[in-house]
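ok trying again, last paste got cut off:
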Amino acid sequence: APVVTPVCGEPTWSATTDNAMFVWNDCDLPKRWHMRAVRGGAVGTVFDGDVTSINGFTKLLGVKLETNDVVNPVPPVRTVFAGPIDYALTVYPGTFDGLDFVVGVDATGAYDGCFNMTAPTDAPVLVGATRVPVSPPFSLATFGACTQ
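nice, full thing came through this time. structure:
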């Protein structure tokens, strides 16, 4: 787990200067997550990975996706689905791609999921409003290593 626990809310980020995958959840609805693949710099790349949820998902929306971005299932999805969400987002310098998703909850309202990014290796995953670096794959509930 990271030394500092990430806090909810969108971080400040720039498509022209940052090179990272930003992941955060909403403070008013913690099960609603956002991810933005951002490629500041001179060379484009593919951000590749997946998201799983032990209770499935209830929504998946794409943000600034183009035809060369591959997401399965194809957003928008506004019904319950088991997952996983597989993504391969081609991001060019000065641009970003993103996904918004809502994880399912159990009878107590608890949720967990696993966020993974296998590429690129030169872009960190920065989580929460304070941009805490977290090594994937990590739990959406604890930010520690995934258990599923």
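cool. Residues 70 and 88 are 5 Å apart (CA to CA). The chain is about 0% helix and 45% strand.
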